[in-house]
Amino acid sequence: MKLDSAGLRVLSRAECLRLLRTTPIGRIVFTDRALPAVQPVNFHLDGEEIVIRTAVGTKLAIATRRAVVAFEADDIDWESRTGWSVTVVGRARAVTDPGEIRRLETLPLVPWAPGSHDHFIVIMAEQVSGRLINPEAPAR
After folding, report:
1. What are the residue boundaries of the structural domains of the chain, listed by start?
2. What are φ and ψ of residue 53, in 5° steps?
3. Which residues contact 106 (CB under 8 A, 6 or more apart)?
4. What's the pLDDT tens digit per position in 1-20?
């Protein structure tokens, strides 16, 4: 078991991707007018790609075109003080191919926010890291 400098267990890429499949909400980190911006989104992990559905012309849709972004998701149990956190860094792209759009529309990805969400953003999971929070784990 590999621990980081804080004593948290380091998760493998496979463990991180498995955990991402267990939660529908994450946060995308992107640049908005040269400043960092964070936005909660619902998503679906399609293979090793994070798929987000949004509206055309939104700040998120515009800012993430061909940009390097970060994505984070986690699950924490406040009572037991256990949980996990996974971070992905990769290039985001707007999906424009009609065939790919039709395929993505079949994914179990239903927007939670009101309004039309006809624009898909896909993030390739290039760098994946994660930590398991478990206070019972032996410290270094």
Report:
1. 9-133
2. -115, 130
3. none
4. 898 888 889 999 999 999 99
Residues 6+ apart with CB under 8 A from 107: 44, 46, 51
Domain 9-133 indexed as CATH 3.10.129.10? no
Distance of CA 76 to the CA centre of its chain: 16
pTM to 2 decimal places: 0.90
Torsion angle defined by CA atoms of residues 40, 127, 101 and 110, in that order, rounded to the nearest 10 degrees: -30
